[in-house]
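Hi everyone, sorry if this is the wrong subforum. Our group has a chain we'd like a structural model of before ordering constructs, and none of us has done structure prediction before. Sequence below.
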Amino acid sequence: MKETTLQETSRAHLLRMTARRVFTVILLTVVCSTMSYGQQYLQHSIDSIKKVIRYYDQKDSVHLSAVCRGNLMVIYYNNFMNDQYMAEVDDHLKWLEEKGEWSVYYFIQGIKVLTLIHQDKVQMATREAKTMMEHARQHRHEGGLALAYVGMADIYSATGRYKEASAQYQKALAANTKKKNELYSTVMDNAYIMQASALQQLNQNEEQIKHCREWEAWLRSGVVGDGDFFQCRLANCQSVLAEAFTALGRYAEAEKCLQRSAGYASKVQDHGLTVLAMYNLWASRSSYHLARQQAKEALACLDSMNQLMGGEKGAEMQRADALVMLGRGKEGADIYKRIIADKDSAFSHNMTKQLDELNALFRLDELQMQNTLQRTRFAVVFILLTALALIGFLLYRFFAVRRMERLKAKSERMESELRVAHEIQLGMVPSVFPAFPDHPEVEIYASVTPAKEVGGDLYDYAIHGGHLYFCLGDVSGKGVPASLLMTTAINLFRVASRQQLAPVDIAMQMNETLTENNDSGMFVTLFIGKVDLKTGMLDFCNCGHNPPVIIAEGKPRYIEMKTNIPLGIVPGYNYQNETYGCITGKPFFLYTDGLNEAKNAQGEQFSYQHIIDLLAQHAFTSCQDTIELMKSEVSLHASGTEQSDDLTMLCLKINN
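Answer:
Right subforum, don't worry. Here is the predicted structure as tokens:
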């Protein structure tokens, strides 16, 4: 479910506050804050609201000036003007505190917490939430305290701490009980929708269903009216219910919820709220179709989501699952790699660490009576840490020279080991040409250029029983881990080819070995071929690798192939064998993505089309000439730009 924050309820809340005052304020401030801004109108709208603020300040209309200030902050937030917001928010908070306009004060402070979260300043956001909580308790403001709980919960949600987030949302719902409080509907709406999201992330589906029933009853109580916002929230509620029923395998109930969600969404007139309702509906439908193994329908829903958001991609894990389900393993594997890289980011680690260090500070309702003792403990810890840091610094200085000498020796030893590994790797692939002096009908040439000292590309070939076996592939990742997997893959291919197996049997045998204990998640894209030297017939199995090129009658073209996933991902995967036909007299060219994805200084790729164009422009003379041509053209294209991936090529021709 798409996350919803104060951004989505701020406009409706300020509208209700203003409607009880003067029509002029509705005209000059609320209209400005609820319109869809074009770039040419945005600054004009901001300037207009600032003029209104000055006007009401001169008239000493405190509450109307406060509402205008709140609308101005909402405009900054809704238009991602974070720097402008942070530059002005403290002055507005100071003014609101002096005038005692607490509802707008806590509303703006809640948005400040969200802005800091969006700026990745989690520690500052937690401190702001603490300040807000202490201030609301001091002034006995129920809505402000509940909004502070929501802010703390948003921080936990942003860092994946959904159990703690759920507890904070429950506190917000429990603390915000008085409907006369002007922040009541804002707090309740945010707490209900974000608690539903937290329960979904925790897989507490039965609790999620119960919570959604309570949420729907609250919406129908009349607190938020019966307009677009009401219809949008009903649609969101039904989408979340559908997700819960889908997770429990109750598909009939899930389908009914999706139908109701679509009905509510169709009644929404406001564009922004329509986008929100439909986005959540498409997301829930994609989860529903994936659970029922309907991959094509799920992809259609995900494409609709992306189109709705102007091309911005979302729900990447669902897209990867659908692609693998459809047999498009290479595309799915690429998405899995991106997701794993994102999860390993230092940003997520640092935010979690910061929350662990500061978590005790925000359990104020349980620890309020122990503040003095806690401050003393912090002081003692600070002194101890300072002393330890000083001792550590002195020890570091004392052993610095000796440590640097050890590091230098270790570095030289590692460089030596990498050079040896590089030599061993190159020794694993055949490099003597002509490759088969006893078989003049077989012309073959290959080369490998690692992007680092030790790479992950591979190729091999051998003749067994009157058949030429050959392969070319690419291991995910680079460096020593990729080289180790490359060595394993080559040895597996050699053992299987000596058994004179069909390419598909070689693939399945290699896959079973590579998927065993593959905790690192690495995989191999591989093209496996087998040519009958008497008939020239080619059998092959392509395991998620780039399409090869065949040159027939001087015209190069890519071979159309069935889609198999790379080796090492799914144990027991049923790979498919294919037959091309006779390739006698037809040059056959294989390569890794280090060729078609080679970039120049402008970031432009060498491209698949450029490969075809070069082979069409230069008549085939020999396999070696073809590969040397490609190496020369890649070097010319890169123009000194550092190679980003291993480059491996193989060309063969069976002569009459």
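For your construct planning: The domain at 204-326 is CATH 1.25.40 (Serine Threonine Protein Phosphatase 5, Tetratricopeptide repeat). The chain is about 65% helix and 10% strand.
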